[in-house]
Amino acid sequence: MLAIGLCCALLIYLTAEDDPVSAVSYVVVDGVTYPIAPGSSKMYVRELQRFGGKATVLIDELNRWFAGLWQGKSLAITVAWISIVVSLGVFLFARDLSSDANSDE
Fold it and tell me: What is the distance between the alpha carbons of residues 38 and 11, in angstroms, rounded to a whole number?
């Protein structure tokens, strides 16, 4: 289970590209266009805080972070950690079962 999960994570990491940031606006510097992420825009954060308060700004940042875990190369890292945790859980469960079987004998 661990080997398959880590191989899948490696395959995702090697083939995935980081998605471009969804931009609120763009800044042009020396002829190069740079997107401005919504969380980095003071106007966006100010409007969000005005309508929902500081908790809304915090929830928006948390939501953007969580959504970022499932895109691009971050997905590969997420899959690797999930496979490690699940494999560890299965290992501990199987070890507990084998110790229960030994204690019955």
Answer: 30
pLDDT in tens, the chain (105 residues): 999 999 999 999 999 987 666 777 788 899 888 888 777 788 888 999 999 999 999 999 999 889 888 888 999 999 999 999 999 999 999 998 887 667 756
Helix (H) or strand (E) holding 84: helix 72-104
Task: Report strand pairing: 32-36 vs 25-29.
Answer: antiparallel
CA proximity to 64, closest of 48, 76, 80: 48
Largest CA distance in the chain: 77
* Contact between residue 83 and residue 8 where contact means Cβ atoms under 8 Å apart: yes
Total Cβ atoms within 10 A of residue 79: 20
